[in-house]
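tool_call: predict_structure(chain=1)
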Amino acid sequence: MRNKLLTGLLCLSMVFGLCACGSTSEKVEETTTSKESAASVENGSLSAESAVVSVGKTTVSYDEYRVYNYLMKNQYRDIFDDSVWDYAGNDMEDSIGQEAVMDVVRLIIQVKVICKAAATQGVELAADEKEEADHSATEYCEGISDEEKTQNGISQNVMSRIFEENKLADKMYRVVTGKVDVNVTKDQSKAVRLQLIYLKAGADDKEAVRANAQALLEQAKALQGNFYNFASENTQADEVESLVGQMDSRENLVANTIGLKQGTLSGVIEESDGFYIAYCVEAAGNSLAKEYKNQVIEERQTKAFQESYAEWAKNYSVRVSKSLLVGE
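tool_result:
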């Protein structure tokens, strides 16, 4: 639930998603090594127009931050009550709400960096694109009660700016990714859909982990139930099911699974990062080849945009109000 809350944030039209430009674990703090110095921000008691984030000379008001925060939380109002934002598990330093504040700030910083890069490159919204963004903002505002607007600092001007800037960020994404090589050969697109058990191993514990993997394989062979559930209980990876193809960097995994038939198990497969056991959900075929090709292209596009963003971000220092980070 926590991961879903923190990774589903906003993205009105930004197809690259939250934190595609950086890790959610990095701290939001002042940086002073970039070319354009950050404008000052306000600490202490914050008013509607208080500057709470600055990216270079561009500042973000407290109301604009609050609107972003509202847009994020509004996605979950029909699923969870407000108490979810106060939740903090045993393995969490901060509550979900506190981490969400950090993620909202990161998203705002990313949008501002991308829009500043767009300005330097002469990329802007066409008249019809701006009109479309403003129309969407108007429709969104019309669905919000006056009470909610007052409580969350929502105005037509701020909402329009947010929709326009997100649309411009999306346009910059398309400008960058439009230059990416999308050629994937037939041989390169061969892929198989797998459910995987992954056990991490290093030099010190490799043989012990190998023995554990072999024991799990024997259990899997005798399994009467669902392999997915068995894998979920034993894997150390975040996901159980994935599409693995010829361009995957895990060469041993590819070599030992690409020819598997549906419903069959692999042996224990050693990779540089540990050991895998694979169950074939869907054997290689034309439909998977097309899906894998699209996956490879998307990965190339994401990498290209992340690299471009990293270069743009170097040009601006960032400041964030301490009052914002310690809580509203």
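agent: Confidence is low (pLDDT under 50) at residues 1-27, 30-34. Proceeding to next step.
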